[in-house]
Amino acid sequence: MPLFQELENIRAAFLDELKKKPALSDLETLKVKLLGRKGRLNDVFKNIRLVADDNKKQFGHAINELKQEIHDKIEAELSEHSYNSQSSKSKIDLTLPEITIPKGSIHPLSQTLDEIVSIFHRLGFDVTEGPEVETEWNNFDALNIAKDHPARDMQDTFFLKNGHVLRTHTSPTQIRLMQSEKPPIRSIMPGRVYRNESINSRSYCLFHQVEGLYIDENVTFSELKATLDLFFREYYGSDVKVRFRPSYFPFTEPSSEVDVSCNLCGGKGCRVCKYTGWLETLGCGMVDPKVFQSVDYDAEKYTGYAFGMGIERMTMLKYGINDLRLFYENDHRFLEQF
Ligand code: DAH
Questions:
Q1: Which element (helix H / strand E) includes 252?
Q2: Domains of the chain: which residue ranges?
Q3: 108-335 belongs to which CATH class?
Q4: Confidence band of 151 (pLDDT split at 50, 70, 90)
Q5: CA-to-CA distance for 144 and 152, rounded, in angstroms?
Q6: Cα(228) to centroid of ligand 1, in Å?
Q7: Digit-coded pLDDT (tens) for 173-201
Q8: pTM value?
Q9: How far apart are CA 176 and CA 135, in angstroms?
Q10: What is the enclosing helix (H) or strand (E) of 109?
Q11: In this structure, are residues 192 and 169 in contact, taking their beta carbons and an 8 Å threshold?
Protein backbone atom coordinates (compact mmCIF):
# COMPACT_ATOMS: atom_id res chain seq x y z
CA MET A 1 0.00 0.00 0.00
CA PRO A 2 2.35 2.75 -1.19
CA LEU A 3 -0.28 5.48 -0.69
CA PHE A 4 -0.62 4.69 3.01
CA GLN A 5 3.13 4.70 3.11
CA GLU A 6 3.09 8.13 1.47
CA LEU A 7 0.96 9.45 4.34
CA GLU A 8 3.42 8.07 6.83
CA ASN A 9 6.27 9.77 4.98
CA ILE A 10 4.46 13.11 5.02
CA ARG A 11 3.79 12.75 8.71
CA ALA A 12 7.42 11.85 9.50
CA ALA A 13 8.77 14.75 7.41
CA PHE A 14 6.34 17.11 9.13
CA LEU A 15 7.39 16.00 12.61
CA ASP A 16 11.03 16.44 11.60
CA GLU A 17 10.29 20.00 10.51
CA LEU A 18 8.55 20.76 13.80
CA LYS A 19 11.51 19.50 15.77
CA LYS A 20 13.59 22.21 14.11
CA LYS A 21 11.41 24.78 15.90
CA PRO A 22 10.47 26.69 12.74
CA ALA A 23 10.07 30.46 12.84
CA LEU A 24 6.60 31.95 12.66
CA SER A 25 6.77 32.61 8.93
CA ASP A 26 8.07 29.07 8.26
CA LEU A 27 5.14 27.63 10.18
CA GLU A 28 2.73 29.56 7.99
CA THR A 29 4.49 28.31 4.86
CA LEU A 30 4.45 24.73 6.13
CA LYS A 31 0.75 24.97 6.83
CA VAL A 32 0.00 26.13 3.30
CA LYS A 33 2.35 23.55 1.75
CA LEU A 34 0.65 20.65 3.54
CA LEU A 35 -2.93 21.69 4.21
CA GLY A 36 -3.53 24.33 1.54
CA ARG A 37 -5.90 23.85 -1.36
CA LYS A 38 -2.98 22.90 -3.59
CA GLY A 39 -1.06 21.31 -0.70
CA ARG A 40 0.48 17.86 -0.36
CA LEU A 41 -2.47 16.21 1.37
CA ASN A 42 -4.95 17.29 -1.25
CA ASP A 43 -2.55 15.95 -3.87
CA VAL A 44 -2.50 12.60 -2.15
CA PHE A 45 -6.26 12.64 -1.81
CA LYS A 46 -6.61 12.96 -5.60
CA ASN A 47 -5.04 9.52 -5.84
CA ILE A 48 -7.85 7.93 -3.88
CA ARG A 49 -9.13 6.44 -7.16
CA LEU A 50 -5.99 4.28 -7.21
CA VAL A 51 -6.93 2.73 -3.89
CA ALA A 52 -8.88 -0.50 -3.87
CA ASP A 53 -12.56 0.07 -3.13
CA ASP A 54 -12.38 -1.85 0.15
CA ASN A 55 -9.68 0.46 1.43
CA LYS A 56 -11.05 3.75 0.13
CA LYS A 57 -12.90 4.56 3.32
CA GLN A 58 -9.91 3.73 5.48
CA PHE A 59 -7.64 5.81 3.26
CA GLY A 60 -9.94 8.85 3.44
CA HIS A 61 -10.07 8.44 7.15
CA ALA A 62 -6.28 8.28 7.42
CA ILE A 63 -5.90 11.46 5.37
CA ASN A 64 -8.38 13.34 7.55
CA GLU A 65 -6.68 12.15 10.66
CA LEU A 66 -3.32 13.30 9.41
CA LYS A 67 -4.80 16.65 8.36
CA GLN A 68 -6.23 17.12 11.81
CA GLU A 69 -2.98 16.16 13.48
CA ILE A 70 -0.91 18.53 11.34
CA HIS A 71 -3.45 21.30 11.84
CA ASP A 72 -3.50 20.91 15.62
CA LYS A 73 0.26 20.76 15.94
CA ILE A 74 0.80 23.81 13.78
CA GLU A 75 -1.83 25.77 15.71
CA ALA A 76 -0.19 24.75 18.97
CA GLU A 77 3.14 26.02 17.68
CA LEU A 78 1.57 29.24 16.46
CA SER A 79 -0.04 29.99 19.78
CA GLU A 80 3.26 29.23 21.48
CA HIS A 81 4.84 31.89 19.30
CA SER A 82 2.24 34.52 20.15
CA TYR A 83 2.49 33.65 23.83
CA ASN A 84 6.25 34.16 23.69
CA SER A 85 5.94 37.49 21.98
CA GLN A 86 3.36 38.56 24.57
CA SER A 87 5.52 37.58 27.44
CA SER A 88 8.39 39.57 25.97
CA LYS A 89 6.06 42.58 26.09
CA SER A 90 5.34 41.94 29.71
CA LYS A 91 9.06 42.00 30.36
CA ILE A 92 8.77 45.84 30.65
CA ASP A 93 10.97 47.04 33.48
CA LEU A 94 8.61 48.89 35.79
CA THR A 95 11.46 50.20 37.90
CA LEU A 96 12.83 52.40 35.10
CA PRO A 97 12.21 56.14 35.59
CA GLU A 98 9.32 57.47 33.48
CA ILE A 99 9.96 59.39 30.29
CA THR A 100 8.72 62.90 31.03
CA ILE A 101 7.26 64.81 28.10
CA PRO A 102 7.74 68.52 28.72
CA LYS A 103 4.43 70.32 29.10
CA GLY A 104 3.97 73.75 27.55
CA SER A 105 2.59 76.69 29.49
CA ILE A 106 1.17 80.03 28.46
CA HIS A 107 3.89 82.69 28.33
CA PRO A 108 3.64 85.10 31.29
CA LEU A 109 3.29 88.06 28.93
CA SER A 110 0.39 86.37 27.15
CA GLN A 111 -1.21 85.60 30.52
CA THR A 112 -0.94 89.26 31.56
CA LEU A 113 -2.36 90.41 28.25
CA ASP A 114 -5.23 87.91 28.47
CA GLU A 115 -6.02 89.17 31.94
CA ILE A 116 -5.92 92.84 30.89
CA VAL A 117 -8.11 92.15 27.87
CA SER A 118 -10.63 90.25 29.95
CA ILE A 119 -10.89 92.98 32.62
CA PHE A 120 -11.44 95.72 30.03
CA HIS A 121 -13.78 93.48 28.08
CA ARG A 122 -16.07 93.43 31.12
CA LEU A 123 -15.98 97.24 31.10
CA GLY A 124 -17.18 97.35 27.50
CA PHE A 125 -13.84 97.76 25.67
CA ASP A 126 -13.16 95.89 22.44
CA VAL A 127 -9.71 95.07 21.02
CA THR A 128 -8.04 96.78 18.04
CA GLU A 129 -4.69 95.90 16.53
CA GLY A 130 -2.36 98.00 14.38
CA PRO A 131 0.82 97.35 12.37
CA GLU A 132 4.31 97.37 13.87
CA VAL A 133 5.69 99.31 10.89
CA GLU A 134 4.14 102.77 11.12
CA THR A 135 4.28 106.05 9.31
CA GLU A 136 6.15 108.76 11.13
CA TRP A 137 2.97 110.81 10.97
CA ASN A 138 0.87 108.21 12.88
CA ASN A 139 3.63 107.49 15.37
CA PHE A 140 4.54 111.15 16.10
CA ASP A 141 2.92 114.05 14.18
CA ALA A 142 -0.74 113.08 14.62
CA LEU A 143 -0.05 112.58 18.33
CA ASN A 144 1.21 116.13 18.66
CA ILE A 145 4.80 115.03 19.18
CA ALA A 146 6.88 117.96 17.90
CA LYS A 147 9.50 117.49 15.20
CA ASP A 148 12.25 118.30 17.68
CA HIS A 149 10.87 116.11 20.48
CA PRO A 150 13.65 113.97 21.96
CA ALA A 151 11.59 110.80 21.49
CA ARG A 152 12.10 111.17 17.74
CA ASP A 153 15.83 110.95 18.16
CA MET A 154 17.72 108.24 16.26
CA GLN A 155 18.80 107.02 19.69
CA ASP A 156 15.24 105.99 20.53
CA THR A 157 13.56 105.19 17.23
CA PHE A 158 14.30 102.54 14.61
CA PHE A 159 13.90 104.32 11.26
CA LEU A 160 13.33 102.18 8.17
CA LYS A 161 14.77 102.83 4.70
CA ASN A 162 11.28 103.48 3.29
CA GLY A 163 10.82 106.47 5.60
CA HIS A 164 8.62 104.60 8.08
CA VAL A 165 9.45 103.65 11.66
CA LEU A 166 9.06 100.62 13.90
CA ARG A 167 6.37 102.00 16.19
CA THR A 168 7.81 103.22 19.46
CA HIS A 169 4.47 102.89 21.27
CA THR A 170 0.93 101.62 20.63
CA SER A 171 -0.51 105.15 20.57
CA PRO A 172 -0.49 105.36 16.71
CA THR A 173 -3.18 102.67 16.73
CA GLN A 174 -5.42 105.28 18.41
CA ILE A 175 -4.95 107.44 15.31
CA ARG A 176 -5.82 104.58 12.94
CA LEU A 177 -8.90 103.71 14.98
CA MET A 178 -10.17 107.30 15.08
CA GLN A 179 -9.60 107.63 11.35
CA SER A 180 -11.61 104.53 10.58
CA GLU A 181 -14.46 104.96 13.08
CA LYS A 182 -16.67 107.68 14.48
CA PRO A 183 -17.34 108.00 18.24
CA PRO A 184 -18.33 106.41 20.50
CA ILE A 185 -15.08 104.46 20.65
CA ARG A 186 -14.09 102.24 23.53
CA SER A 187 -11.14 100.03 22.70
CA ILE A 188 -7.86 98.65 23.95
CA MET A 189 -4.93 98.18 21.58
CA PRO A 190 -2.27 95.64 22.53
CA GLY A 191 0.93 95.11 20.58
CA ARG A 192 4.68 94.97 20.26
CA VAL A 193 6.71 98.17 20.20
CA TYR A 194 10.39 98.87 19.49
CA ARG A 195 13.00 101.19 20.94
CA ASN A 196 16.61 101.61 20.02
CA GLU A 197 17.93 101.11 23.53
CA SER A 198 20.90 99.27 24.92
CA ILE A 199 19.89 95.88 26.28
CA ASN A 200 20.08 95.35 30.04
CA SER A 201 17.92 94.11 32.89
CA ARG A 202 15.55 97.08 32.56
CA SER A 203 15.48 97.89 28.84
CA TYR A 204 15.25 95.84 25.68
CA CYS A 205 14.98 96.64 21.96
CA LEU A 206 11.35 95.56 21.98
CA PHE A 207 8.54 95.25 24.49
CA HIS A 208 4.74 95.21 24.63
CA GLN A 209 2.12 97.79 25.47
CA VAL A 210 -1.63 98.04 25.81
CA GLU A 211 -3.21 101.30 24.77
CA GLY A 212 -6.69 102.32 25.86
CA LEU A 213 -9.03 104.84 24.30
CA TYR A 214 -12.54 105.98 25.18
CA ILE A 215 -14.18 108.76 23.19
CA ASP A 216 -17.73 110.02 23.35
CA GLU A 217 -19.62 113.17 24.27
CA ASN A 218 -18.99 114.27 27.86
CA VAL A 219 -16.29 111.80 28.84
CA THR A 220 -14.63 113.08 32.00
CA PHE A 221 -11.38 112.66 33.89
CA SER A 222 -13.29 111.15 36.79
CA GLU A 223 -14.42 108.32 34.51
CA LEU A 224 -10.78 107.72 33.62
CA LYS A 225 -9.90 107.60 37.31
CA ALA A 226 -12.74 105.25 38.19
CA THR A 227 -11.97 102.93 35.29
CA LEU A 228 -8.25 102.63 36.06
CA ASP A 229 -8.95 102.32 39.77
CA LEU A 230 -11.20 99.37 39.10
CA PHE A 231 -8.73 97.89 36.64
CA PHE A 232 -5.90 97.89 39.17
CA ARG A 233 -8.08 96.40 41.87
CA GLU A 234 -8.99 93.56 39.52
CA TYR A 235 -5.41 93.04 38.38
CA TYR A 236 -3.44 93.39 41.64
CA GLY A 237 -6.16 92.61 44.17
CA SER A 238 -8.68 94.72 46.08
CA ASP A 239 -6.13 95.91 48.67
CA VAL A 240 -4.08 97.86 46.14
CA LYS A 241 -3.83 101.65 46.54
CA VAL A 242 -3.88 103.76 43.38
CA ARG A 243 -2.38 107.25 43.06
CA PHE A 244 -2.67 109.73 40.17
CA ARG A 245 0.32 112.03 39.74
CA PRO A 246 0.30 115.05 37.36
CA SER A 247 2.54 114.47 34.33
CA TYR A 248 3.01 115.47 30.73
CA PHE A 249 2.38 113.71 27.41
CA PRO A 250 2.06 115.60 24.11
CA PHE A 251 -1.14 113.71 23.18
CA THR A 252 -3.08 114.25 26.42
CA GLU A 253 -4.06 117.31 28.42
CA PRO A 254 -4.24 117.12 31.36
CA SER A 255 -1.90 114.13 31.71
CA SER A 256 -1.21 111.88 34.60
CA GLU A 257 0.95 108.99 35.66
CA VAL A 258 -0.53 106.30 37.85
CA ASP A 259 1.30 104.60 40.71
CA VAL A 260 0.10 101.58 42.66
CA SER A 261 1.15 100.55 46.15
CA CYS A 262 4.01 98.05 45.93
CA ASN A 263 2.39 94.64 46.12
CA LEU A 264 5.66 92.98 47.10
CA CYS A 265 6.18 94.87 50.36
CA GLY A 266 2.60 96.09 50.79
CA GLY A 267 3.77 99.72 50.66
CA LYS A 268 6.34 99.43 53.47
CA GLY A 269 9.25 99.96 51.08
CA CYS A 270 11.55 97.40 49.42
CA ARG A 271 14.20 97.01 46.73
CA VAL A 272 11.60 96.72 43.92
CA CYS A 273 9.82 100.00 44.80
CA LYS A 274 13.15 101.62 45.66
CA TYR A 275 11.90 102.03 49.24
CA THR A 276 9.13 104.45 48.19
CA GLY A 277 6.23 102.02 48.66
CA TRP A 278 4.91 102.98 45.20
CA LEU A 279 5.36 101.56 41.70
CA GLU A 280 4.92 103.61 38.51
CA THR A 281 2.62 101.75 36.17
CA LEU A 282 1.12 103.74 33.33
CA GLY A 283 0.52 107.06 31.62
CA CYS A 284 -2.88 108.50 30.85
CA GLY A 285 -4.87 111.66 30.31
CA MET A 286 -7.63 113.43 28.41
CA VAL A 287 -7.08 113.30 24.64
CA ASP A 288 -5.50 116.58 23.51
CA PRO A 289 -7.69 118.65 21.12
CA LYS A 290 -4.70 118.75 18.72
CA VAL A 291 -5.02 114.98 18.34
CA PHE A 292 -8.73 115.36 17.54
CA GLN A 293 -7.79 117.91 14.90
CA SER A 294 -5.40 115.53 13.17
CA VAL A 295 -8.13 112.89 12.79
CA ASP A 296 -10.86 115.42 11.91
CA TYR A 297 -12.92 114.91 15.05
CA ASP A 298 -14.96 117.83 16.36
CA ALA A 299 -13.04 118.80 19.53
CA GLU A 300 -16.00 120.92 20.68
CA LYS A 301 -18.33 117.94 20.58
CA TYR A 302 -16.19 115.07 21.79
CA THR A 303 -13.92 114.42 24.73
CA GLY A 304 -12.09 111.25 25.65
CA TYR A 305 -9.39 109.65 27.67
CA ALA A 306 -6.40 107.53 26.73
CA PHE A 307 -3.93 105.43 28.64
CA GLY A 308 -0.93 103.27 27.87
CA MET A 309 0.85 100.63 29.91
CA GLY A 310 3.76 98.26 29.44
CA ILE A 311 2.85 94.56 29.62
CA GLU A 312 6.36 93.54 30.73
CA ARG A 313 6.25 96.12 33.49
CA MET A 314 2.81 95.00 34.69
CA THR A 315 4.03 91.39 34.78
CA MET A 316 7.30 92.23 36.56
CA LEU A 317 5.49 94.21 39.21
CA LYS A 318 2.97 91.47 39.82
CA TYR A 319 5.50 88.66 40.23
CA GLY A 320 8.59 90.57 41.40
CA ILE A 321 10.61 89.69 38.28
CA ASN A 322 13.77 91.75 38.17
CA ASP A 323 15.18 91.13 34.69
CA LEU A 324 13.29 92.00 31.49
CA ARG A 325 15.47 89.70 29.41
CA LEU A 326 13.92 86.62 31.06
CA PHE A 327 10.79 87.18 28.97
CA TYR A 328 12.63 86.66 25.68
CA GLU A 329 15.10 83.89 26.46
CA ASN A 330 12.53 81.05 26.51
CA ASP A 331 14.27 79.29 29.36
CA HIS A 332 11.92 76.53 30.55
CA ARG A 333 13.02 76.92 34.15
CA PHE A 334 11.62 80.45 34.06
CA LEU A 335 8.52 79.83 31.94
CA GLU A 336 7.43 76.75 33.90
CA GLN A 337 6.80 78.90 36.95
CA PHE A 338 3.75 80.59 35.40
N1 DAH B 1 2.64 106.29 24.62
C2 DAH B 1 3.18 106.47 25.94
C3 DAH B 1 4.52 105.77 26.07
O4 DAH B 1 4.85 104.97 25.24
C5 DAH B 1 2.24 105.90 26.98
C6 DAH B 1 0.98 106.68 27.08
C7 DAH B 1 0.87 107.72 27.97
C8 DAH B 1 -0.09 106.35 26.27
C9 DAH B 1 -0.28 108.48 28.08
C10 DAH B 1 -1.29 107.09 26.38
C11 DAH B 1 -1.37 108.15 27.29
O12 DAH B 1 -2.36 106.81 25.64
O13 DAH B 1 -2.52 108.87 27.37
O14 DAH B 1 5.25 106.02 26.99
A1: strand 252-261
A2: 2-89, 108-335
A3: alpha beta
A4: confident
A5: 12
A6: 14
A7: 999 999 999 999 999 999 999 999 888 88
A8: 0.72
A9: 11
A10: helix 108-122
A11: no
